[in-house]
Amino acid sequence: MATKLKSVVLTVGLAAGIALLGGTPASAESAPGCARVTQIGATKIVKDTRGNTVMSVKQFLGCNKNYGYTWVWESWASTHRGFTAGAGLYVEGHLKGYNVDAANDREVWSDGLSTVDKCTKGYGAAGAGGDVVWAGETEQRC
């Protein structure tokens, strides 16, 4: 009985912790045109001025290409209708492969770029009316 109670308490505690964090970003498994990608570098978390998580920005490697990736968190998206999000890569200081998805689309991939031999950073942005309000980039990977 004590073991069962501990299990219930742990499950409830875990659920409460996830709720307090506003949910978790989805883990990407495949990029457009590439079935298997691997995240390189750390995830950049972008927050608004109130400390709410807006999005996660990541960089992936797969199919001999680099990809930028943006995931807008549900907890933020649910209160900000009409937003757009974009993803790209900084390649040796220049933004390339940038894509913006349809309004309220929470997941965006950059174009896959043949830049595995160059220094790159993942870049993500979100905003409304064509204006970028929130943006972030991952650390550089060479």
Name a few traits of the molecule.
single chain, 142 residues, alpha+beta, five-stranded antiparallel beta sheet, 2 helices, 16% helix, globular, disordered N terminus
Condensed summary:
This protein is of the alpha+beta class and 142 residues long. It has two helices and nine strands; from the N terminus they run H-E-E-E-E-H-E-E-E-E-E. The strands form two sheets. Strands 1, 2, 3, 4 and 7 form a five-stranded antiparallel sheet that branches. Strands 6-5-8-9 form a four-stranded antiparallel sheet, with no helix packed on it.
Q: How is this fold's topology laid out?
A:
Layout: H1 2-20, E1 38-39, E2 44-47, E3 53-62, E4 65-72, H2 74-77, E5 84-91, E6 94-100, E7 107-109, E8 120-128, E9 131-137
Antiparallel strand pairs: 1-3, 2-3, 3-4, 4-7, 5-6, 5-8, 8-9
Word description of this protein:
The protein has 142 residues and is α+β, with helices and mostly antiparallel strands. 16% of the residues lie in helices and 41% in strands. It has helices at residues 2-20, 74-77, and strands spanning 38-39, 44-47, 53-62, 65-72, 84-91, 94-100, 107-109, 120-128, 131-137. The strands form 2 sheets. Strands 1, 2, 3, 4 and 7 form a 5-stranded antiparallel beta sheet that branches. The chain has a 4-stranded antiparallel beta sheet with strand order 6-5-8-9, with no helix packed on it. A hairpin with a 2-residue loop joins strand 5 (84-91) and strand 6. It is globular and about 40 Å long.
